[in-house]
């Protein structure tokens, strides 16, 4: 189990940084909507991660039960690494240039009036259907399934992965609950900085994760 946690924790930390746009959403929810709305978004996010992780781990386990040493797992890691590199390049090309005014997308503004039910569904969709997040979660689940075949160890390892990967998304709601009205300036400052730097940070994180997965896959092939 410790091997599975250790193997996936770096990917989970990468998702914390790669999910900065989700953090911007929860900042909006924490400052503009009632507390239950931001917690609903977090619940949807965690559920989405859990569903994808369960599916991926199950698929890998079924494959490994049929073949004790499936040759395709290392190549899956390589393919996921290449996808992450492609996403890193895309983010880098699309980053805001010096002096460029960063305008929040219209859907971000729409979050200021979203209900708890819609926030729950939106959080689930961003965790389970967003291509970038889907690739990273799949990578983490694959590494966990490859590290241990024991179901309860896989479950604990992925639970740890989910908690770590959700720290950024949960942070605004926690800050708002802890600081109350004083959280406004703190969250506003974080919003301004992340809006400007998120693309650059994500491109760097995706690049590193991609290289690590490719090396891991090549080594195991």
List the helices and strands and how they pair.
Elements: H1 2-18, H2 20-32, H3 35-66, H4 72-93, H5 106-110, H6 116-128, H7 131-147, H8 151-165, H9 167-179, H10 183-220
Describe this structure in words.
The protein has 221 residues and is mostly helical. It has one domain (2-220). Helix content is 84%, strand content 0%. It has ten helices and no strands. It has helices at 2-18, 20-32, 35-66, 72-93, 106-110, 116-128, 131-147, 151-165, 167-179, 183-220. Helix 1 (2-18) packs parallel to helix 8 (151-165). The protein starts with a helix and ends with a helix. The model has no long low-confidence stretch (mean pLDDT 80).
Feature tags:
single chain; 221 residues; mainly alpha; 10 helices; globular; 0% strand
Helix content: over 70%
Mean pLDDT: 80
- Silhouette: globular
Our Rg estimate from Cα atoms comes to: 18 Å
Kindly state the number of beta strands. Answer: 0
Described by strand count, sense and barrel closure, the largest sheet is:
none
Order of helices and strands: HHHHHHHHHH
| Poorly predicted runs of 5 or more residues | none
Quickly give the structural class.
mainly alpha
Q: How much strand? A: under 5%
The total tally of domains equals 1
Give me the number of helical elements.
Answer: 10
Separation of termini? Answer: 22 Å
Task: Give a brief outline of the structure.
This protein is mainly α and 221 residues long.
């Amino acid at each position: 189990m410790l091997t599975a946690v250790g193997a996936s924790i770096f990917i989970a930390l990468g998702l914390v940084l790669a999910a900065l746009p989700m953090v911007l959403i929860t900042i909006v929810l924490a400052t503009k909507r009632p507390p239950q709305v931001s917690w609903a978004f977090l619940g949807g996010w965690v559920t989405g991660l859990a569903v994808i992780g369960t599916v991926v781990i199950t698929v890998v386990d079924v494959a490994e039960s049929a073949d004790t040493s499936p040759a395709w797992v290392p190549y899956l890691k390589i393919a996921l690494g290449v996808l992450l590199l492609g996403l890193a390049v895309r983010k880098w090309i699309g980053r805001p240039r010096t002096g460029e005014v960063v305008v929040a997308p219209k859907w971000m503004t729409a979050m200021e009036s979203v209900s708890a039910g819609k926030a729950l569904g939106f959080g689930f969709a961003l965790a389970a259907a967003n291509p970038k997040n889907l690739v990273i979660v799949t990578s983490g689940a694959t590494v966990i399934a490859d590290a241990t075949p024991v179901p309860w160890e896989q479950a604990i390892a992925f639970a740890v992965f989910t908690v770590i990967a959700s720290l950024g998304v949960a942070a605004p709601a926690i800050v708002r609950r802890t600081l109350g009205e004083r959280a406004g300036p703190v969250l506003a400052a974080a919003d301004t900085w992340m809006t400007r730097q998120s693309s650059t940070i994500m491109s760097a994180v995706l690049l590193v994760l991609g290289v690590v997965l490719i090396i891991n896959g090549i080594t195991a092939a």
